């Protein structure tokens, strides 16, 4: 009888310990999940900011927006899975999303730098061409005006005074 | 016309030509605003892709909707749509104070949209589990796009229409680069559902 009692107590304690250990593991997985999702979220935010910077300098970001949409879908699915309790699925998708965010950010920075360089070159060329046109306009106008002035004076000098008779 | 008049005409024509020649370079430095007020659109459409929404819903019956966004902000925007399920007494978003509904979202869409572009996605909603307790109905399980959510949302019997009313709320949030966070964009749409067992 004493042995059975002891056995029951040990069984009860071991069940209690294993369930509390399971709970602790579950809580720790939940915390890991939340932290991984947060990292993925930050990565997407940062990637979007980089894309926005590239867009502001005039880059064509439609391809990057397409990639961001895939990352956004992964993030949304991770958050939904986390809510439904599928922590492993949420962590896997968050990791994928994080990596995508980092890659998009790097690509956006590269695109921004390339665009700034190209825009600078285009601006310099445009200013040069505009300056050339303006100089030509000023020169043509100056010489044109001089010629016109001379012609005008010659025309005035050639004019003869005529006295009109008062015929009645 | 005397010589001074001709000089004035020459100067005006010259200035006009100089301005025309400088326009391409000026356009690269000076930006002109379009003068249009920036805004975003949010919509839901019924199963036939029209504004014909079903209002009565049975448990286990699938409700097909379309949810869409339009970006007219002048730049590529990052939108999030939160889908919330609530009863008739839980508060809707506060449009005057720009506050979202306090209910926790169940489903969400993260959408990146370039300027002047629209986005639309299908959404399938179903109530999978509900039980009636006297004059109230408790919804315990719903499904959105095949994802199952365990909830506890009760609604009292509306004596006038003899139905239990719930709402499906779609809130639009926008990422704010200055705050480095998502912010409620003060736009929402809600669909009233009369639930029957």
Could you characterize the architecture of this molecule?
The complex is a heterodimer of chains A (168) and B (197). Chain A contains three helices and no strands. Chain A is an all-alpha fold and 168 residues long. Chain A has a domain at 7-118: Butyryl-CoA Dehydrogenase, subunit A, domain 3 (Up-down Bundle). Chain A is rod-shaped. Chain A starts with a helix and ends in a 10-residue tail after the last helix. Chain B folds into two domains: 1-32; 39-196, Immunoglobulins (Immunoglobulin-like, Sandwich). Chain B is mainly β. The A-B interface holds A 44-45, 48-49, 51-52, 55-56, 61-62, 65, 68-69, 72-73, 75-76, 79-80, 83-84, 119, 122-123, 126-127, 129-130, 133-134, 137-138, 141, 144-145, 148-149, 152 and B 3, 6-7, 10, 13-14, 17-18, 21-22, 24-25, 28, 75-76, 78, 80, 106-114, 147-150, 175, 177, 180-181.
Topology (elements, then pairings):
The complex is a heterodimer of chains A (168) and B (197).
Chain A: H1 2-56, H2 62-84, H3 87-158
Chain B: H1 3-29, E1 39-45, E2 56-58, E3 62-72, E4 77-87, E5 107-113, E6 118-133, E7 136-144, E8 147-158, E9 163-176, E10 181-196
